[in-house]
Specification:
single chain, alpha+beta, 2 domains, eight-stranded antiparallel beta sheet, 7 helices, elongated, binds zinc ion
Length: 260
Amino acid sequence: MSDRDRFRELIEAYVLGALDPEERSAVEAHLAEGCAECSKARDEARWLVSQLAYLAPEAQPSDLLRGRLLETVHAEARAKHARKSSRSVPFWMWAAVAALLVFTLYTSWETVDLRRQIAESIARAQAEIAKRNELQEMLETNIVTDPRSVRIPMASDKKDMPQLEARWHARFGIVVAGQNVPAPSGTRTLQLWLIPKVQNGKPIPSLMLRPDAGGKFMLLVTNPPETMEATKALAITEEPAGGSAQPTTKPIWVGTVGSP
Ligand SMILES: [Zn+2]
């Protein structure tokens, strides 16, 4: 990875004053060189921090809030070094959650209590995200490795498309996975459909996902909208961002659901 990526990860911590002196001067030197991406990130982070500061108009953010933020940023930084996972949730996401909460509760004058709630909500949001990621990975692994899962190869009649494979576990749900999947253009997305066995049954919409930058596609549906027994096939179409209620394009992949 380039140096630029390394600095980008430090910007939020930099704005919160959570960096070691050494890292801090490195970031400052990098910003002084005029990196547009990092400057933009710095301005956004400053904006967020200014919104958090709104909470206590008469004072600096409380020691508690500041302490929690620093603690969390440090924990996040440690976690980043520990596991370079594509799932690692950026500081930015849960900080945004906290910022939203600030706006929601701003009308209240109980600022001390409010600050406590925000500190707690940040910690809670982070814990929730970590728990959800862990759970999701565990479920994906269970579904893929459990011999009770039904394997559903999903072929494409387009020559340049890789084959996908779905695994459907009666209790845990469906995983659809594939490699080297080309990204749909713009903000369009790939949406999964359950084709019911009943005659003239309309495709039932399920979740959507874009492949990641490396072309990896891994869609987890924990609560399929129909049972395996009542489903004839799985299909994936390309749809506008946000998905559709009924398919608007011809399926790219289709796989017939066998029996367990
Ligand atoms: Zn940069």
